[in-house]
Amino acid sequence: MRTEGGMSTGVVAVVTEPQFAQRYREYLQKMKLLDREHRAEKMPDGAVALPVLGETLREQHLLALRSCVAPGSTCLLTHLPDPVPSKKAQVCPPAQRLCREVRRWVEGQGVTWSAELEADLPRSWQRHGNLLLLSEDCFQAKQWKNLEPELWKTIASALGVQRLAKRGKVLPDGPRTPAVTLLLGDNSWVEHVDNGIRYKFDVTRCMFSFGNISEKLRVASMSCAGEVVVDLYSGIGYFTLPFLVHAGAAFVHACEWNPHAVVALRKNLEINGVSDRCQIHFGDNRTLKLSNIADRVNLGLIPSSEEGWPIACQVLRQDAGGILHIHQNVDSFPGKNLQPHGSSRTENSYPQKITTNKGENGATRDFRGKVPSSATKLEWQRWAESAETQIATLLQQVHGKPWKTQILHIQLVKSYAPHVDHIVLDLECRPCPLIG
Is the pLDDT of residue 20 over 60? Predict the structure, then answer.
């Protein structure tokens, strides 16, 4: 036996003449030595290289190949620096492929693979073009530290990207800045396209939620022609852009206090060609000077947007009112039945007829609410009714006259955590006509 090249990367392969290749393959497969993740390759001299599991291949196996399996055959070992994945490997789930490639590389560094290391590998991630964003709960074992920075190159290669970043805990500051570290690459700006809208942002400075896509599509489908919209928590334009690009809003006032998000928002308005129909208000929206301008207000903040409710009431048009889209995380409990459209309503469901109740300060609630078209949990209904009561009271206080509120719809955005649902309440708010 001799080893060609002396290379330390790639995979190990046994080389023999073409007429003996099938016998070699059968023996290696029987002995569980055949690397089924890579294809056999034809060498420049016509010989065939069969990838094998090099860490388990012993001299006795090479001797058996030469003397028993195929007497008279040439039996050499080589390293294939760029092995071709087999068809099986090409359809291998990414997490499984990552585990295989990282393990092979780690063992090549002389480090013993362990169950602890395997459990510390990521099972999911976010992909933004050629950048992969890993979750915070992976690569925490101390052994990884000694393998950096080459470890990150191995991971990027296994998953087909050029840049790698890792998420940390969200900082407990006002803008909820993500603690993201760039592990590989020198540029942390990425571009993501949703529903024909381009979003550019610095992944180390701004968050991007893939889970909000259903709500972004719903906003895009709304008919907002001629409307003025106030987006109280604009971020990089998650909902501001759908309102402008697809829903046809005449103008959007976008409020944001994260300076990095504002930089991205301004860029995104420009690249989507809608910067002339949007004004950015940088700073704390609780001090916003706008009033009496909005046909629609978006309150896209979780776990709760309640601190923005007074300003949302303030910016609604005094003469015609408008619609509030209020985001909230609501605790839901296992075992609670959903109330599907058309089912028998309980005492917590919305009545179909108009029922007018006088609240505090003369505020009026109009319960001409529709049972939502999607299944609705009792907890969502209870929270929506509570929010409606509070909004009706705030409208009376802000505008000095009674308003009617009507629950139009409750929309599930996503499951935020076990037994916690991210929902949106569409609440119509109209001033009561003056009598006499």
Answer: yes
